[in-house]
Amino acid sequence: MARFQYNTLPLGEDEIRLLKLLPESMPSTFQPVKTELIRCNIDRPPTFKALSYMWGDEDNRRDIEVGDAMLSITASLDMALRALRSQTEQVLFWIDQICINQNDTAEKNLQIPLMTRIYTIAIQTVGWIG
Question: Which residues cross the membrane (predicted)?
């Protein structure tokens, strides 16, 4: 499976990504978590939750499926996603490690100032300490 590649968010626009955490009726620690990324305007977002968590060890990584590609995340976040996914419904989350391209300084410089607003408009902030 291919490695995930971010599409650059339009610079100067109030656009964010949200992670669609897909249901898993038979959870397995051997299969990657399945997700999709969607883009939306921060002024008109769908209902979503925000995740506050400890990144954990940067060298301890797992892959998740984002669409038809694989994205490397910390093992701590992988554990949180497995615990938070529904068995029957998709759930939208804003998660900084995934929703912001961590390898794009220009994008981070635009997205990080939006974080207070993102946490404010989320219907719930979930805390995960692993």
Answer: none
Q: What is residue 10's predicted lDDT score, i.e. its pLDDT?
A: 76
Query: No. of H helices and E strands in the chain?
Result: 4, 8
Strands in 69-74's sheet, in edge-to-edge order, are 2-3, 69-74, 61-66, 34-41, 15-21, 91-94, 49-53, 124-128
What is the rounded CA–CA span in Å between residue 102 and residue 78?
17
SS3 69: strand
- Closest Cα partner for 96 from 112, 83, 81? 112
DSSP 19: E
| Among the listed residues 40, 54, 53, 57, the one whose alpha carbon sits nearest the alpha carbon of residue 114 | 40
Full-model pTM: 0.93
Residues in the chain: 130
Tokens of 67: 């669409």
Structure tokens at 34: 């399945």
Give pLDDT tens digits for 71-121: 999 999 999 999 999 999 999 999 999 999 999 999 999 999 999 999 999
